[in-house]
Amino acid sequence: MLENIIKIIKWQSLKNKPDSLLPNSESDCVANESILTITVNNEELISFSCSPANLEEMAVGFIFSSGIISSLNEIEMLKLCSASNKVSFLLKDNIFFNNKFWQKRQTITSGCGQGKSFNIQTLKNNIPKITGSLQVSPDYICELFSDLRNISQSYKNTGCIHLAALIKEGGPSIVREDIGRHNAIDKILGAALRIEVDFSKYILCCSGRISSDMILKAGRAGIPIVASRAAPTSLAVDIADELNITLIGFARGRRLNIYTHPKRILFNKQFDESKIPELAQQELITLNDTFL
């Protein structure tokens, strides 16, 4: 559940209406928040706040985007304990992981709940430059964000849910939501790994600002285009430029800003509305069964 209904006192002052000064008791939606703990090889890796949905996806996406695994084949066992809100991983014997080294190299991120990620320089050095040849029109990007704005009911209800989408012409596309921008990306990466998508053919769309660690997550997956309706940070721009990622910000209405590698945006390409996926119909990847 991404949200919950609670009783609140609502007050609003309206000009020329003295009665408006009286508070009213109403119902309102608030975003649910929980603490998720991830363990690897029986050692605690990290705990952070998140929306209590698609937790297995997020945990898989996190250890993937942090460089701990490169595919699901490297996981021997994955277990979600709902009672303790814990996802436990056991890696295969041939996969080396040093938890103490990982803990020393963590960086506090700019995301919700004081998220942490592996050292930025270390991650960047282990990510090859993106070579994907995906090209799209600016109209296509704008239409995607128009659709994403319309399907995010949880944001409309609570005002504090972030959305991320992994989108490909013709699909399948993946849409996930969370109180954290980083968490939403990890959820779609985890879901994408499960169905073995070719990341080089996808666009990553985000609702919030793009920070350096979010670009690193995209780079780790090999995603060639990252777009947001908000702004990127300077370090995000630098990393996108270095990794050969096309970075787009302020995709709102009929405008957008391209910060790096504009070669993937075809301004003279004829826009085909039939290529826009039905995003509301493509949130089909669920975890009602065993993840692995």
List keywords for this structure.
about 290 residues, alpha+beta, Ubiquitin-like (UB roll), Cytidine Deaminase, domain 2, 2 domains, 6-stranded mixed sheet, 4-stranded mixed sheet, 8 helices, 14 strands, globular
Q: Tally the beta strands.
A: 14
Structural class: alpha+beta
Quickly name the level 1 CATH class of the largest domain. Answer: Alpha Beta
- What overall form do the CA principal axes indicate? globular
Low-pLDDT segments: 280-289
Strand order of the largest sheet: 10-9-11-12-13-14
What integer is the average pLDDT? 85
Into which percent range does the helicity of residues fall? 25-40%
Looking at the overall shape, the CATH architecture of the largest domain is: 3-Layer(aba) Sandwich
Q: Please, how many domains? A: 2
Q: Specify the number of helices.
A: 8
Report on the structure:
- The structure is a single chain.
- Residues 280-289 have low confidence and may be disordered.
- This protein is of the alpha+beta class.
- A hairpin with a 2-residue loop joins strand 3 and strand 4 (43-50).
- The protein has helices at 55-65, 99-104, 120-125, 138-151, 153-158, 181-194, 212-221, 234-243, and strands spanning 3-10, 24-31, 34-40, 43-50, 75-81, 86-91, 106-108, 116-118, 162-167, 174-178, 203-206, 225-228, 246-252, 255-260.
- Strands 10-9-11-12-13-14 form a six-stranded mixed beta sheet, sandwiched between helices. The protein has a four-stranded mixed beta sheet with strand order 4-3-6-5.
